[in-house]
Amino acid sequence: MKVLHVIPSVSTLRGGPSYAVINMVKSLRQAGVDAEIVTTNDNGANGVVLDVPLSQRTDYQQVPIWFFPCQENSGQALTKDKGFIFSLPLTSWLWQHIRDYDLVHTHYLFSYASTCAAFIAKRQGIPYIRRTIGQLSPWALAQSRLKKQVYSFLIERSSLNHAAAIHCTSREEAIDVHKFGIVVPTVTLPLGVELAPQQVNAKTKLRAFYGIPLETPVVLFLSRLHYKKRPDLLIKALHQLKSQSHSFYLMMAGSGDTSYVQELKNLANNLGLGDRTCFPGFVTGEDKQLLLQGSDIFVLPSFSDNFGIAVAEAMAAKLPVIVTPEVQIASGIVAAEAGLIIEGEVEALARAIAKLLSSPDYRRQLGENAARVANQHYCWQTISQNLTFIYSSIIQTSPSQPQ
């Protein structure tokens, strides 16, 4: 079975979907599926590109990937959207090689590579799955509304309705897909996390490294620093707790637009949190695990997140989580008693954090529940086995005739 995954970019600066597709393909290959990725050399807009070989099969982070040059200026001229990421060489390659694969699995909507791959697969009779990554949620559709309405009318709605299936990562995401008028079957499979080895004395090491008092609870935000994720709400909530004499230290980990990151730093300083807030930037590997395993509470008060891979990583690290209902694994968190779900308001978030800060035993119990859920449901091995079964079923029932 040969499967092609298509995504506009695998840059870490593009967030969770890029991280997830690499691990998804890696786990599929370990399960015996001949899976590859085709993408562009985009590295997060602003003309920056990945330093990778182009137009050839390349081993990248232990995964075979075909990179093609992104033509950013062309894409922006067409759509005024830095996420569109146009690539004519990628288009040509897809026309020539898509029939080398039994199935195509695309990631993202309203973006050139994924839409183009679905169109070519349909024309050449190759079954395809589309993963919407939460882009059909009400909040997401409200962003650049007119562009998405036109794009949907001309292209995307038909593309989705001709797919073999729509890959959703939560029940809530599947509901959004059906509300959008998509009638093809949905398959709901979560994303996975890499279960890292436990670091000895992580809490002590984290505090020593960042100069945090040993007994001070650490509140962690680990995600893209983007207004969609609402890091400003967390800073404002912690300002309220500071006035109530709560002890805490905020780790605001992640990368983002330079001007927005500076806004957040200014906000923290203006609210008197500068001496108890750190912006370590983008972290990975052991540094990331030190943050996850050494912190006490994880917070992601997003406007919208179809899954929230960072939330699952925090749960795997035994962290109690606080999220908004718009983070679409919220219902699973509630069912497992793995964290708190709050409305996206300063007072509600402040109350939830205060509740966990004041009760180390409660935090510990929620964290244990979170880790159990992550081990059971967010394991890449299990997810890849389920995907393999879905792929086989689709391929066996596909007529594989051009339409």
Using the coordinates shown, work out and report the CATH topology of the largest domain.
Rossmann fold
Tally of individual domains: 2
Low-pLDDT stretches:
74-80
Number of E strands: 14
Number of helices: 16
Write the SSE topology.
Layout: E1 2-6, H1 16-30, E2 34-40, E3 57-60, E4 63-68, H2 72-79, H3 88-97, E5 103-107, H4 112-123, E6 128-131, H5 138-142, H6 145-161, E7 165-168, H7 171-179, E8 186-188, H8 202-210, E9 218-222, H9 231-242, E10 249-253, H10 258-270, E11 277-281, H11 285-294, E12 297-300, H12 309-316, E13 321-323, H13 330-336, E14 339-341, H14 346-357, H15 360-377, H16 380-397
Helix pairs in contact: 1-16, 3-4, 8-11, 9-14, 12-15
Textual characterization of the structure:
This protein folds into 2 domains: 2-192 and 380-397, Glycogen Phosphorylase B (Rossmann fold); 202-377, Glycogen Phosphorylase B (Rossmann fold, 3-Layer(aba) Sandwich). The protein is 45% helix and 16% strand. The chain has helices at residues 16-30, 72-79, 88-97, 112-123, 138-142, 145-161, 171-179, 202-210, 231-242, 258-270, 285-294, 309-316, 330-336, 346-357, 360-377, 380-397; strands spanning 2-6, 34-40, 57-60, 63-68, 103-107, 128-131, 165-168, 186-188, 218-222, 249-253, 277-281, 297-300, 321-323, 339-341. Strand 5, helix 4 and strand 6 (128-131) form a beta-alpha-beta unit. Helix 12 crosses helix 15. Residues 74-80 have low confidence and may be disordered.
